[in-house]
UniProtKB/TrEMBL annotation:
Protein name, as recorded: ATP-dependent DNA helicase RecG
CDD domains the UniProt entry points to: DEXHc_RecG, RecG_wedge_OBF
Residue intervals of the Helicase C-terminal domain: 468-635
Residues annotated as domain Helicase ATP-binding: 287-449
SUPFAM superfamilies the UniProt entry points to: Nucleic acid-binding proteins, P-loop containing nucleoside triphosphate hydrolases
One GO MF term attached to the UniProt entry: helicase activity
EC number per UniProt: 5.6.2.4
Catalyzed reactions per annotation: Couples ATP hydrolysis with the unwinding of duplex DNA by translocating in the 3'-5' direction; ATP + H2O = ADP + phosphate + H(+)
Keyword set, alphabetical order: ATP-binding, DNA damage, DNA recombination, DNA repair, DNA-binding, Helicase, Hydrolase, Isomerase, Nucleotide-binding
PROSITE patterns with a match to the protein in the record: HELICASE_ATP_BIND_1, HELICASE_CTER
Function text: Plays a critical role in recombination and DNA repair. Helps process Holliday junction intermediates to mature products by catalyzing branch migration. Has replication fork regression activity, unwinds stalled or blocked replication forks to make a HJ that can be resolved. Has a DNA unwinding activity characteristic of a DNA helicase with 3'-5' polarity.
SMART domains reported for this sequence: DEXDc, HELICc
InterPro entries: ATP-dep_DNA_helicase_RecG (IPR004609), DEAD/DEAH_box_helicase_dom (IPR011545), Helicase_ATP-bd (IPR014001), Helicase_C-like (IPR001650), NA-bd_OB-fold (IPR012340), P-loop_NTPase (IPR027417), RecG/Mfd (IPR047112), RecG_dom3_C (IPR045562)
Amino acid sequence: MSASPFETPIEYLKGVGPARAEVLKKELAIFTYADLLRHFPYKYIDRTRFYKVKDIHPEMPYVQVIVRLTRKEIIGEKRTKRLVVQAQDDTGQIELVWFQGVTWVDKSLRVGKAYIIFGKPGVFNGRPQMSHPEMEQYSPQAIKRQGNLTLQPAYNSTEKLKQFSLDSKGIQKLTTVLIEEYARYLQENLPLYVLNKYRLMERREAYRQIHFPDDANKLNEAQHRLKFEELFFLQYKLLKNKLHRTQKFKGNIFDKVGEYFNGFYNNHLPFALTSAQKRVLKEIRTDTQRGVQMNRLLQGDVGSGKTVVALMSMLIAIDNGFQACMMAPTEILANQHYQTIQGLVGNDYVEVALLTGSTPKKQRRVLRERLLNGELKILIGTHALIEDAVQYQNLGFVVIDEQHRFGVEQRSKLWRKNVVPPHVLVMTATPIPRTLAMTMYGDLDVSVIDELPAGRKPIETVHFYESQRLRMFGMMREEIAKGRQVYVVYPLIKESEKLDLKNLEEGIETMRREFPLPKYQISIVHGKIPAAVKEEEMQRFINAQTQIMVATTVIEVGVNVPNASVMIIENAERFGLSQLHQLRGRVGRGAEQSYCILMSSNKLSNDGRIRLDTMVKTNNGFEISEIDLQLRGPGNIEGTQQSGVLDLKVANLATDQELLMQVRKCVEEIFEKDPQLIHPENQILHQVSQSKNAGLSWNKIS
């Protein structure tokens, strides 16, 4: 057996064997004892009460009855094959029927024996019936066990598993074996003073109670303990990484604010900074004076002025003799940042250059030379910036836009562009709820710009049903007559048979009819057209050669057209909240009043209605992201799927926000008092982080 019994492959557990192991691996990703231990019940059923056959009726949810089997037979052939069993107690008869795993179940049931049956009652031909009930042979021990189990665990299973008698009951049996034989080997993984301070149940007991609770209170305590543990090790790992980085990577010290920054602030800045922008600049300023490498996440809604903050931070780097660069995920976005920054600083103030995959070879060579000899101060581009051939004289500050599109590997390539790693500012326009930011980006310091620059009018959002389409066309004509432009976004390209969607192609036809040539020009952009054509169509819209852009969601990130004042989202109920919010942010870039029109069918699901009402009610991205988290759960928020960080089994970031804050504080205090974890009471954490069975898959957290 391996060092910890919980690393043992699942086939070695009594009652599993090779065939069942195979299906457990495929269906539930249960490979080891530890995986089974962490396959928690999804609900609990009260099993204390026994009914008589005459008292049960089809409206009841689940019932349990003690009956004796009087007859059984297999009826039908192959596909229609079913097992029918007659059973009775002293008040009446009930029929039990199985359509799956027929042979297996038939072998395991004996006529004449008494069984405890549990399931959903139904009626067939006017008589009580139960299909696929859970069965356990009657014995005083079984009754006693049921009596002790006031709350019966219910486990997720699948049709495939049920063919191997691994329904909820079957999984429960395996878990019983595991807990009875191996629970004693479960080691505590939290320091004693943490258990005492937060009144946590000990680990061994928590696992026992979460699977087989004595009562509702014990179950709550067990869940609380295991949630605490799960969040604890997530935060522990993130904060340990952060601590490790601050100790390992010294940072360049930007000790002065000089003429580049001051000159820009006094002579070039076209508008007053908001207090949120000033606060963030101050945070960055403090970070870059500490002699430790900065890693900061800057969150702010589209149009909140993140680029200006990034530029001013880069100017501080230049004042201190360093170069700066800014990396964006797409050429369009890189281009846009280049235009914006170029427009703010002007040509003669500080030299800014653009490097993307499209930069001609000759130009690249010149760029690289000027970068290496230090003449070029600010370089903006796509991941062309991290190619080995691109060498800086003294890179001190890096800005990364839309972090979730870059892997950790790409980030670290930029760190290696200088002997002392540059300071890193990560920007995102996807507002992330606080709890998610603390788990996904828990090793970064977080800054938030939560107000719009002065003079920006909030976007007016309205929700129209299909029957109000003529009003929508009217609004479009009015805005175009004022010289403005309009986006129309569709969720799909081709009509899917299952979804009755107004698809893009049909939409284009309607638009052409309502807005005919030559008076109106339309740009069309979707995923199926070649990149060059897409680029050309976008450019036509950016240059105001077309008034209407019909598109699928490819325009989500980054296209900046100040003259576009209307965003129409077709089938808006099909989009997630954060996506709707991102799309809305494409308009409202200029000083004019902008509008977002959400078109939907008359039939809306409850969630769909909440999403559209939320959009109409608020423009605040953080408020929206919190509602999105509650509606969709953390696993579906953009950027989290590929990170694997949120593979949480018991904790839920939407509902356990308070606990997460408490845990984070607890871990921070531990590292403040004992950064190296050398105190005897913290030895346990040292050991746990070395072992595989730490209560979380460490490799998932990067």
